[in-house]
Design goal:
The structure holds 2 protein chains of 2 kinds. Chain A is α/β, with parallel strands linked by helices. Chain A contains 7 helices and 8 strands; from the N terminus they run ααββαββααββββαα. In chain A, helix 3 links the parallel strand 2 and strand 3. Chain B is an alpha+beta fold. The longest helix of chain B is centred in the first third of the chain and has 34 residues. The site of zinc ion has 4 residues of chain A, from helix 6.
């Protein structure tokens, strides 16, 4: 009887560990998680969040004259949706009324009305993702799995693209680079909390002129989604 | 007598031990707290532009309106539709720049829980100056928030420790250090008026003034709607465009097809907290209509 129980326990442990590691290469898991040193809560736990609904994105508009071209940012929104879809993380482009990821672009003063912590966070950042649920409150539905100590669900995210620094001077990047920023921010909206340590990844923290997701970018989001 | 001496000795030993234990615990608690600070309190989803990273106090003071010692009286979790946390602060001392309020509202995201209720901090502050927030609303510039322990400053994140040096790592040295840095501008330089008594005065301070028809309304959050416009008549400036959407006060309950006189700044935001977006039911509608008829 004891023997049977032992074998059963050993087998289930083996099965569970194989199941937990899934198809994501170990290197991608660890390097991504190690890079999320920022994303610890006050108890030292790593935090992630994820969408539990189908991601639906909409371009909400350019909110300040003489800044971004609305047609460019709209095209970048379409591109980001397509690129994440191509790699297996489907993002639908919809109208604003039915979206759960909304993209706004404009001057910092205007963007503060959507996300009032962008100065407090980093005062020169070109893009930021803010998490809401449908009623506007950040959700705190914690869940646990074998890879991640804790996380929460956020099914309504806002992305802001910011034109200028804290005193109104244009940030020193070209409009084309915001295509990278937006692709990156959509990664956050899908659930990537933290940044990749690998500088060539879209989910590395630095804005740059590259526009193709890497296998590490994709694998990390798949891991979050439980694929 | 002997018994009494022994008893006194025992009591003394207990008292001393309790004292030692208590101070050790206190010390450990503070050290533990320092060890457990987040590496950085930038949110993990904040992107950077290479070359723009904060490296020293000089970097954050360049964007600050004031540096103050203030106590966190209360942390409201759910403020303004969940856009960050709203912290109520009591200002003890302004050590640099200008901050005319004894009570502040601070918008923070509290990533890493680095700022706590009931604690006092040295804060690098910048006034929000956006019409939909109260005038005493501030942000912490680049997470410049420091714990003060026995006059010594510690970053609320480990990263912020690197921004201070031997020249400014105590409260006294920081006061001295900042006293040599000129105040570049104050929060009054671009503060938003609550309202204007006369439309003509509001016209003068506005970058753009127009009569617009509402073409789309999307409820963004508790304080603003996203408004699409058609310009019926432009009286001043070029901050208004049909290509752009505007974040105007949700309390106006704007609806498609309605017409408004709008008085905005270069960012397309109302120039006053009240009375700058004028609909047919507003008390200054006729005044605005008459004034603008002559423009
Ligand atoms: Zn990021």
């Amino acid at each position: 009887m004891k023997k049977t129980l032992c074998i059963f326990l050993a087998l289930s442990t083996m099965f569970l560990s194989v199941y937990a590691t899934n198809s994501i290469p170990e290197a991608d898991r660890l390097s991504c998680w190690n890079a999320t040193v920022d994303s610890t809560d006050s108890s030292g736990n790593q935090r992630i969040y994820r969408m539990t609904v189908q991601p639906k994105i909409a371009f909400g508009g350019v909110m300040s004259m003489g800044t971004f071209s609305a047609s460019n940012i709209e095209a970048y929104t379409t591109y980001a949706a397509q690129e994440w879809t191509t790699v297996g993380m489907p993002v639908n482009e919809v109208n604003i009324g039915s979206a759960n990821i909304i993209v706004y672009a404009g001057k910092r003063q205007a963007m503060l009305l959507i996300d009032n912590t962008i100065t407090a966070t980093t005062y020169l950042l070109p893009g930021h993702t803010y998490f809401h649920n449908g009623t506007g409150q950040p959700e705190k539905n914690w869940y646990y799995n074998s890879d991640v100590k804790c996380g929460y669900i956020s099914n309504f995210n806002k992305v802001v693209l910011i034109w200028d620094d804290i005193i109104g001077n244009k940030l020193d990047i070209s409009e084309g680079t915001y295509k990278n920023v937006l692709l990156h921010e959509v990664g956050h909206a899908l659930g990537w909390y933290g940044h990749s340590s690998n500088t060539t990844d879209i989910m590395h923290k630095a804005a740059k002129d590259s526009f193709l997701l890497t296998s590490r970018d994709v694998n990390h989001v798949k891991q979050i989604k439980g694929y | 007598m002997k018994k009494l001496t022994i008893l006194a000795c025992i009591i003394l030993i207990i008292v001393v031990n309790v004292f030692i234990l208590f101070s050790a615990e206190n010390h450990n608690t503070f050290q533990n707290m320092l060890d457990n600070r987040p590496e950085s309190v930038n949110p993990p989803n904040a992107m950077i532009i290479p070359g723009y990273e904060t490296e020293s106090v000089d970097d954050i003071i360049a964007y600050s309106h004031a540096v103050a010692v203030a106590k966190v009286e209360k942390i409201e979790e759910d403020s303004y539709d969940g856009i960050g946390y709203e912290l109520k602060l009591a200002v003890d001392e302004v050590i640099w720049g200008e901050c005319p309020y004894s009570e502040l509202i601070l918008f923070e995201n509290l990533y890493g829980g680095h700022i706590k209720e009931g604690e006092e901090y040295l804060l690098f502050l910048r006034a929000l100056n956006v019409y939909a927030y109260p005038e005493n609303s501030y942000n912490i510039v680049g997470n410049g928030a420091y714990i003060i322990e026995d006059n010594t400053l510690y970053g609320t994140s480990k990263e912020a420790d690197n921004w201070i040096s031997d020249q400014n790592n105590t409260l006294d040295k920081m006061k001295d250090y900042l006293s040599k840095i000129p105040v570049a501008y104050t929060s009054n330089d671009n503060s938003i008026a609550d309202s204007y008594d006369e439309v003509s005065a509001m016209y003068e301070v506005s970058d753009s003034v127009a009569k617009v028809k509402i073409t789309s309304v999307f409820e963004e959050n508790a304080i603003v709607d996203v408004i699409g416009i058609e310009i019926i008549e432009n009286y001043k400036g070029s901050a208004l465009s049909e290509e752009v959407k505007y974040l105007w006060p949700s309390e106006k309950n704007m609806a498609v097809e309605e017409e408004y006189f709008v008085f905005v700044d270069a960012d397309g935001l109302p120039v006053a907290r009240e009375g700058a977006i004028i609909g047919a039911n507003d008390s200054n509608f006729n005044e605005a209509k008459e004034f603008l008829a002559n423009k």
